Structure formats: structure tokens, C-alpha cells
From TrEMBL:
This is STAS domain-containing protein. Signal peptide: none annotated. InterPro entries: MEDS_domain (IPR025847), MlaB-like_STAS (IPR058548), STAS_dom (IPR002645), STAS_dom_sf (IPR036513). It comes from Blastococcus saxobsidens. It holds the Pfam family MEDS. Residues 197-288 form the STAS domain.
């Protein structure tokens, strides 16, 4: 399983890592960006930094990255405003963003870099209630791309004064999270074989889980959801999974629940959810 869970410090991110970083102020934002991007220099990655305030912070004075202008001149670093990175691709959508980052990552690899490391402060998009649902969907699609794509690593930054529900939705689709305690009691992210659900899902979080699962990219005739990291799930969580299974079934996709906790499987049968939505329980590890 990919590296996941709460992080207190900027992680030494490797290829295919995806980190949500909730920051306090501009000083905290710039410090996190510098440390994360500096790791990319050590790994031989091309760097892309997105966000108006973080770009200002990098240009404000000497940093551990060295000469910013020299990095830009030799193609090692690119600085973009939010408008440059997101509005320039047309109406904001997960599909247009995936195409943008797929192209940028492949260009980096073709130019001899080991991959693309992205630091993006997208607080402005998260603050826009009309864009927020699509932003959450993009973060989820982005995680699938990062897990299975040609070599992108990313840290997505959000200011802590955003609404708690927004931070919870966004943090919930990242494998690694730096945020106040309780922001993301559970996470849905992609592993080598498909999506994984880890953490605790109760009645309060069930609606969020439903939104995230509805946005989960699924292809093929079966979807295997790994539950090996699920610590707790109540009746509401089981019903959300059943509704998702039924929706997938209507699309011709069979849901497989891998490594489900025994209590969840027991509740599933006690609630007769197997009569309403067909799923396959598998206690074995996924095949390699």
C-alpha cells in the first residue's frame, strides 16, 4: 500500500506521493513549499510551483532552492499563478487538469528529469463554492494519476481558515495529510490495484464518503476496494458502500471488497445488504 496517514513535517516524498498540507499563514506556506521543492532537486525532478502567494514568497528572498531565476532559465523550475495553471486550460474540470499535468509530466521525463514535482496552493479554488465540488473530484482523479501515471509527485496546500467541511473533503482524497486533528478521519486514495479506504467512517462522515465514492474513477467490469486499513465503519458507512455497489452494478461494474473487517462483513449480512447490492468479499491480499 502507498505511504499514507498523518504527517507532522514535510515528508521526504518519493515518486507517486500525494500530500495535502493545511497551512496557517504565508510564512508556513512558503517554508513548506521550499522544503518540498528542495526534495525534488535532490531527486532529479523538474519543479512546478502553482499559486499567487507562494510564488511571491519564493521570489521574496534567498531560499534553500538557490537562484530562482537560474532554475527558471534552465528549465528546472516553472512558476505559475492559479490563473496560469487552471484557468488557462478553459473551464475548470478534472479532465482538463489531468491532461495538463499528464503533458507536463511526460515532457519532464522526455527532457531527462526523473519526474515532475508539483507544489500547488489552490486555496482560492477551494474558497469558491461553485468550483469546490469539481476541485475535490480533480484531487481524487489526480491521486489516481499520481499513483499510476508517468512520474508525478505533488503537495496540495490549503489555508486552515477554509470551511472545515471543505478541508475534510479535500484532505479525504489524499494519502498523506498534514492538518488539524480530526480534519480527515478517513481517506480514500489509489493504490497499485485500485482504491483503498482507510481510517474511521461513522454516521457523521458517511455523507462525505458517499461524495468521494461517487467521484471515484472506475473502469472495467470490476472495482476492488481495499479495506485493510479501515479501522471502524458503522451502519451508515455500510449503507453508503451498498448504495455505491448498487450504482456501480447499474453500470455493469461489480464491487469487490478486499480485506474487509469481519465486523463490517457481519453487519452487511445482518442488514441484508447482500440482497440489495451484490458485492464480493475477499479476505485474501490482492494478487500482485
Amino acid at each position: 500500500m502507498r505511504v499514507h496517514g498523518a504527517v507532522a513535517e514535510v515528508p521526504v516524498a518519493g515518486a507517486h506521493d500525494h500530500v495535502c498540507w493545511v497551512y496557517r499563514d504565508d510564512t508556513d506556506l512558503t517554508a513548506a513549499a521550499i522544503e518540498f521543492l528542495a526534495g525534488g532537486l535532490l531527486h532529479g525532478e523538474r519543479l512546478l510551483c502553482v499559486g499567487d502567494r507562494v510564488v511571491e514568497g519564493l521570489r521574496r528572498g534567498p531560499t534553500a532552492l538557490g537562484d530562482i531565476d537560474a532554475l527558471i532559465a534552465d528549465g528546472r523550475l516553472r512558476l505559475l499563478t492559479v490563473a496560469d495553471a487552471y484557468a488557462a486550460t478553459g473551464p475548470f474540470s478534472a479532465e482538463s487538469q489531468r491532461a495538463f499535468y499528464d503533458d507536463a509530466t511526460r515532457r519532464a521525463v522526455a527532457d531527462g528529469y526523473t519526474g515532475l514535482r508539483v507544489f500547488a496552493d489552490v486555496t482560492a479554488l477551494a474558497a469558491d463554492t461553485t468550483l469546490r465540488p469539481e476541485l475535490v473530484r480533480w484531487e481524487h482523479v489526480a491521486d489516481e494519476f499520481i499513483a499510476h501515471g508517468p512520474g508525478m509527485t505533488a503537495m496540495c496546500a490549503y489555508r486552515e481558515d477554509l470551511p472545515a467541511a471543505a478541508l475534510g473533503d479535500l484532505a479525504g482524497v489524499h494519502p498523506q495529510v498534514h492538518a488539524p486533528t480530526g480534519t480527515a478521519p478517513f481517506q480514500v486514495f489509489f493504490d497499485d490495484r485500485g482504491p483503498s479506504l482507510v481510517g474511521d467512517v461513522d454516521t457523521v462522515g458517511a455523507e462525505r464518503l458517499a461524495r468521494i465514492l461517487a467521484a471515484t474513477p472506475v473502469s472495467g467490469g470490476a472495482c476492488a476496494l481495499d479495506l485493510s486499513g479501515l479501522e471502524f465503519a458503522d451502519v451508515a458507512a455500510c449503507r453508503v458502500l451498498a448504495r455505491w455497489a448498487r450504482t456501480l452494478g447499474e453500470r455493469g461494474v461489480r464491487l469487490e471488497l478486499w480485506n474487509a473487517p469481519p465486523l463490517l462483513e457481519r453487519m452487511w449480512h445482518v442488514l441484508a445488504l447482500d440482497e440489495w447490492a451484490s458485492v464480493a468479499f475477499d479476505a485474501a491480499d490482492r494478487p500482485v
